[in-house]
Write a structure and sequence with these properties.
The protein is α+β, with helices and mostly antiparallel strands. It folds into two domains: 66 residues; 144 residues, Sandwich (Immunoglobulin-like). 23% of the residues lie in helices and 29% in strands. The chain has a five-stranded antiparallel β-sheet, with no helix packed on it. The longest helix has 49 residues. It starts with a helix and ends with a strand.
């Protein structure tokens, strides 16, 4: 027997089931839509990520060569000195002092820089050209205010017993690129040997100033 309650409940239950089915269907549609959106977003993100990735070429090389040339130079503040000689006297100073400036840029392994003054001949530092000479032993240099020294040593340049080493600078890592100055005052002493009898004439000579880096 079907009661009123059962008669009423049947249609209501059918409507309820239909509503539930529609709700479920809409839920599935919504979920599917969201999934499709998520897939699209992921695809776009991947595309952007792929487009933003770095693309590098192979490396090409450039060879670099920089050369600092080794150098040693010596310059003089003047190139001539005059003397007014007095027969048989010790003090015959030059008319001017001359400054020698030595500048260097050296390679590793250099140990010293020497500065030298010298003549080609010890017997004839100055000559009148007719056999009368002033020897290098009568020619004196006072370097940087020091003692006046005759050119009587054998040095790296010039004639035997005709030179004077004014400086010997030890080279270290701190002064491979450096300089020094030598202020030279000159004198001719006419008191030795036969020089007191030197005849009147004009005497000329050439004094050389030169630097050397060793070894």
């Amino acid at each position: 027997m079907v009661t009123n309650s059962d008669a009423q409940t049947g249609p209501a239950r059918g409507a309820s089931n239909k509503a539930a089915t529609e709700t479920k269907s809409r839920g599935k549609m919504k979920t599917g839509t969201l999934s499709r959106i998520a897939v699209v977003v992921l695809a776009m993100t991947f595309a952007v990520s792929t487009a933003s990735a770095q693309l590098n070429s192979g490396a090409q090389t450039i060879a670099l060569n920089a050369n600092l040339t080794e150098s040693l130079t010596l310059n003089l503040s003047a190139n001539a000195v005059n003397f007014t000689l007095a027969a048989g006297t010790a003090a015959n100073p030059g008319s001017t002092n001359i400054t020698a400036t030595t500048t260097w840029v050296l390679k590793p392994g250099r140990t010293a820089v020497g500065v030298y003054a010298y003549f080609a001949s010890a017997a004839a530092a100055l000559t009148d050209g007719v056999g009368d000479n002033i020897p290098s032993s009568a020619f004196f240099i006072a370097d940087n205010g020091g003692a006046s020294t005759a050119l009587t040593n054998t040095v790296a340049f010039g004639g035997a017993n005709a030179g004077y080493q004014m400086a010997n600078v030890a080279i270290t890592g701190a002064n491979k690129n450096s300089s020094r100055t030598d202020v030279m005052a000159f004198n001719i002493n006419l008191t030795g040997g036969t020089l007191p009898q030197l005849p009147a004439n004009t005497y000329t000579g050439t004094l050389n100033i030169q630097a050397q880096a060793t070894p």
